[in-house]
Design a protein that fits this description.
The chain is α/β, with parallel strands linked by helices. The chain contains 34 helices and 24 strands. Belongs to the alpha-ketoglutarate dehydrogenase family.
Length: about 1000
């Protein structure tokens, strides 16, 4: 702690026993106190009264006070560390009643000499008010700091930072006040105190840390800020290094502007100090154990980060500006604009090698945030980085986006959760003081763009981007804080953008004054070079030479760019080595069957629990029933098949990670992957006890966030291809709020960025009268995005097919995302069962399930083929059975995409005289109809079937997914079943 016992003891203690006793007497009977003290107490403000109120509960001993190394009282010290103003004495005190009063008074007399009671009162009040002033600077000093390089932000001096607020006047500036080493001084005048406070808290750095509740974290920051180490403590070599980094950052942008005038690049001009700051984070982080950094950022300054921080060749970027591909010609994919691309590299800092990877992202700014965190978590798992100090995420934000996009808050909300924590993320805000054309006063309600970070008690360092030493200094503090406390930390670098939103914009249309100032404003590099010349660190000629040398280097890279060719694609290296870039437009089933004895052995393990475990009686009965089905090999239900898929995978060494809202139990109480002792609520997870050397099984009940959690799991799957990673929606339509992640990352990431993912989305779907909100998982949206074998869309109807589709994800030579529409009522449907043999050796996933009844008419007598997908099959089956219909067959399309045309062709060919009907529960404008219509027609044409094209049966087109009236739902369901099965 920064405050020591002796310091606190004098401010409230050297006279505390005396003053507190007098104050207690005053409160009980004002007349019993000397008139001069009576007047003193009457004149105190509320904060001072709060201080003395807490003094009355003191408990320190003489030995504590006499020994400066004695154990500190955290309650007492919390006053020095601070609480919000208005509770000025928060914890202050514990400042001691009577027992140590003699020793303390003796110490006071050593400082002041012989003093009268009146002088004692004045000295006590000075100390109280000085300490309150110091504390409020810690809380609000940033309100008077100088962040804006342009000087456009006109701040009124904050009244709480005015010494007059605490009763100090001009005549009090040079009177000694006893501080006992607060701010590092035993005594100081008010003038000295204010000078220190202004330099520490109101310069080009402003710190928000008093909102942090952890005393140790708060005290660490205070010591680091006030401890005498400030941003002027750079060596000559350190200053030159900063200048060289600024020269590279500025020179690169100027070179691009010269060679590709007006071309969009979303340059870093105005925010160049970020480059040396990132260098500092990496260098100091490497010294503190950091081995790998995953970076996520939007487009502002991305090319500069790619080259000057990540080490991507300048010639590669110049080649891309000339329209050449960023990957080898033989690698397929649509590609993306250069300021969305990622890369990876190794940086060596005096033997500390740190691996960097920049995550590709779309223009949706902050949506890459949870993706980065998921990648970090996976890499920490791979390294067995239990302390979470070897792998860290760095997120580079824009000011308007950080304040405006809800995904920021959702991602921050993951930071301290057991299933998602990564040991703290480094947030760096490029605060351009504008969002596209919107001024900050119109884009946020808070004082700062970074206010959102207070929700996780992250320290926030505001810093002027035109003071590169200050930016580097706070970056060093930030990485030290992260590595020590494993918490998020924010650097808010206030700067500007020299051009408009992009290099083709005219910003003077909307911000004429700002851009008039910018045009007249010297660059950060120019200002810093002048500073170093004035400090005799370099000469003007040396500064010019640094610039000339770098520009010469760029010219050489530019010449080389005309013949530059990428020599490899890095997307199948590292953990992805051995996997292939292969399409899914064929069965590609993989080896998914498992030995029957193994299935039973694992199944029985999943039905066990510790002898002293007080299991829920209902679950106990379920487990007994499962054992019987496993013994017989018949009647395997949905939950058992799912558990067998996970169990066999972990037994084979493949990790499984499942997360989502209520995933442990399952939304519909079917899974019970986590069981709770009914007396202690201790958890037991059977899938973690399959075998002694099994892989990890994780199941996490997630926060009520879809966007961040889906993004997180997608990021995890990018970094770990050898685990089965699943996200489960509570209901399928909950995926609506993760649509940006689904659209911009999951469905198109491989095509745009050559990044494969095996993520599974489990989306409960089915029309069962629950209304418009929890009926449809919106399959039409996913089907609309299908192309180039980008993913798989399945709607399976048997436990066996579920078992195989999960195992298929990990037992093939490539990875594709899987969108799986899962059932609700089928979880306990008496017909929705499978035999264990259907999961045994030689068994596999079936994209199409043909007719299973053996009592129908001959194939050539079949009059109608009904093709459907999902739960409606069982409704059709039961209705057909109840009516005794023999001339209608029902085919199940288990995989909608890639469309299984060969499997369907074989089925259609069996029934040459039948017409074809597509039946679905969803309205005509939704569901799979518009996706399947022409594809079914094409298959009929290929086999020369006389049916021609299919007809539609289902609900009529509606704006809402489903009716909210159960009676109407039942009528609609009966009608579609009748139409599907009635041949006229």
């Amino acid at each position: 702690m920064s405050a020591n016992l002796e310091q606190t003891s004098f401010l409230f203690g050297s006279n505390a026993g005396y003053v507190a006793e007098l104050y207690a007497s005053y409160l009980s009977n004002p007349a019993a106190v000397d008139p001069s003290w009576n007047s003193f107490f009457q004149d105190l403000d509320e904060d001072s009264r709060a201080v003395l109120d807490e003094l009355r509960g003191a408990s320190w001993t003489v030995s504590d006070l006499e020994d400066p190394k004695a154990k500190r009282d955290p309650v007492a010290e919390s006053f020095i560390v601070g609480a919000p103003n208005g509770a000025a004495a928060n914890g202050a005190a514990a400042a001691m009643n009577g027992p140590g009063n003699g020793a303390m008074l003796s110490h006071a007399q050593q400082v002041y000499g012989g003093i009268s009671p009146q002088q004692l009162r004045a000295a006590t009040l000075d100390s109280i008010r000085a300490l309150m002033l110091i504390r409020v600077f810690r809380v609000r000093g940033h309100m008077n700091a100088h962040f804006d390089p342009l000087g456009l932000e006109k701040r009124e001096p904050h009244p709480e930072l005015d010494p007059a607020t605490y009763g100090f006047g001009p005549d009090d500036l040079d009177r000694p006040i006893f501080l006992n080493y607060s701010l590092g001084l035993e005594t100081a005048t008010l003038r000295q105190i204010l000078d220190i406070l202004h330099k520490t808290y109101c310069g080009t750095i402003g710190v928000e840390f008093m909102h942090i509740q952890d005393p140790e974290e708060k005290a660490w920051i205070q010591e680091r800020i006030e401890g005498g180490r400030n941003h002027t403590d750079f060596t000559v070599n350190g200053k030159r290094a900063i200048l060289e980094r600024l020269t590279a950052a500025e020179g690169f942008e100027k070179f691009l502007q010269l060679k590709y005038t007006g071309t969009k690049r979303f340059g870093l001009e105005g925010g160049e100090s970020m480059i040396p700051a990132l260098e500092q984070i990496l260098k100091r982080g490497g010294q503190l154990g950091l081995k790998e950094v995953v970076v996520g950022m939007a487009h502002r300054g991305r090319l500069n980060v790619l080259t000057n921080f990540m080490g991507k060749p300048f010639s590669a970027v110049f080649s891309e500006f000339q329209g050449n591909p960023s990957s080898p010609q033989d690698v397929q994919g649509s590609g993306d604009v250069k300021y969305h691309l990622g890369t990876s590299s190794d940086r060596d800092f005096n033997g500390n090698i740190v691996h960097l990877s920049l995550t590709a992202n779309p223009s949706h700014l902050e949506w890459v945030n949870p993706v980065v965190l998921g990648k970090v978590r996976a890499k920490q798992q791979q390294r067995r980085d239990l302390e979470r100090e070897q792998v860290m995420g760095v997120l580079i934000h824009g000011d308007a986006a950080f304040a405006g996009q809800g995904i920021v808050a959702e991602t921050l909300g993951l930071s301290e959760l057991r299933g998602y924590r990564t040991g703290g993320t480094m947030h760096f805000i490029i605060n351009n003081q504008i969002g596209f054309t919107t001024n900050p006063t119109y884009s946020r309600s808070g004082v700062y763009c970074s206010d959102m970070a207070k929700m996780v008690q992250a320290p926030i360092f505001h810093v002027n981007g035109d003071d590169p030493e200050a930016v580097v200094h706070v970056s060093r503090i930030a990485i030290e804080f992260r590595q020590k406390f494993k918490r998020d930390v924010v650097i808010d670098m206030v700067c500007y953008r020299r051009h408009g939103h992009n290099e083709g914009d005219e910003p003077g249309f909307t911000q004429p004054i700002m851009y008039k100032n910018i045009r007249a404003h010297a660059t950060t590099r120019e200002l810093y070079a002048r500073q170093l010349v004035s400090e005799n660190v370099i000469t003007q000629a040396e500064g010019d030479q640094i610039t000339q040398d770098f520009m010469k280097k760029l010219e050489g890279e530019f010449e080389a760019s005309s013949t530059y060719k990428p020599n490899k694609a890095d997307w199948l290296e590292g953990k992805w080595a051995g996997l292939q870039a292969q399409g899914a437009d064929s069965p590609h089933r993989g080896e998914t069957g498992v030995d029957i004895d193994t299935l039973k052995q694992i199944g029985f393990k999943l039905c066990e629990y510790p002898k002293d475990f007080a299991i829920n009686s209902k679950i106990a009965r379920q487990l007994e029933a499962k054992k019987k089905t496993l013994e017989s090999g018949e009647g395997i239900d949905w939950a058992t098949a799912e558990a067998l898929a996970y169990g066999t995978l972990v037994a084979e060494g493949t990790g499984v990670r499942l997360s989502g809202q209520d995933s442990g139990r399952g939304t519909f109480s079917h899974r019970h992957a986590v069981m709770y002792d009914q007396n202690t609520e201790e958890k037991y997870i059977p899938l973690c006890h399959v075998s002694p050397d099994q892989a990890t099984f994780e199941v996490h009940d997630s926060p009520l966030s879809e966007a961040a959690v889906v993004g997180y799991e997608y990021g995890y799957s990018l970094a770990e291809p050898h685990n089965l990673v699943l996200w489960e929606a509570q209901f399928g339509d909950f995926a609506n709020t993760a649509q940006t992640i689904i659209d911009q990352f999951i469905s198109s990431g491989e095509s745009k960025w050559l990044r494969m993912s095996g993520l599974v989305l489990l989306l409960p779907h089915g029309y069962e009268g629950q209304g418009p909100e929890h009926s449809s998982a919106r399959p039409e949206r996913f089907l609309q995005m299908c192309a180039e074998d980008n993913w798989q869309i399945c709607n399976v109807t048997t436990p066996a097919n579920l078992f195989h589709v999960f195992r298929r994800q990990i037992r093939r030579s490539f990875r594709k995302p899987l969108v799986l529409f899962t059932p609700k009522s089928l979880l306990r449907h008496k017909l929705c069962i499978s035999d264990l043999s259907e999961m045994g050796p030689g068994s596999t996933f079936h994209r199409v399930l043909g007719e299973t009844a053996n009592d129908l008419a001959a194939n050539d007598k079949i009059r109608r083929i009904v093709v459907c997908s999902g739960k409606v099959y069982y409704d059709l089956l039961q209705e057909r059975m109840s009516r005794g219909i023999k001339d209608v067959v029902i085919l199940r399309l288990e995989q909608l995409y890639p469309f299984p045309k060969d499997a369907l062709a074989a089925e259609f060919a069996k029934y040459p005289n039948a017409e074809l009907v597509w039946c679905q529960e969803e309205p005509e404008n939704q569901g799979a109809w518009h996706f399947a219509d022409r594809r079914l027609e094409a298959v009929l044409k290929d086999v020369g079937h006389k049916a021609g094209r299919p007809s539609y049966v289902g609900r009529p087109a509606t704006a809402s997914p489903a009716t909210g009236l159960l009676k109407r739902h039942n009528q609609e369901q009966a009608k579609l079943l009748d139409e599907a099965l009635t041949v006229r």
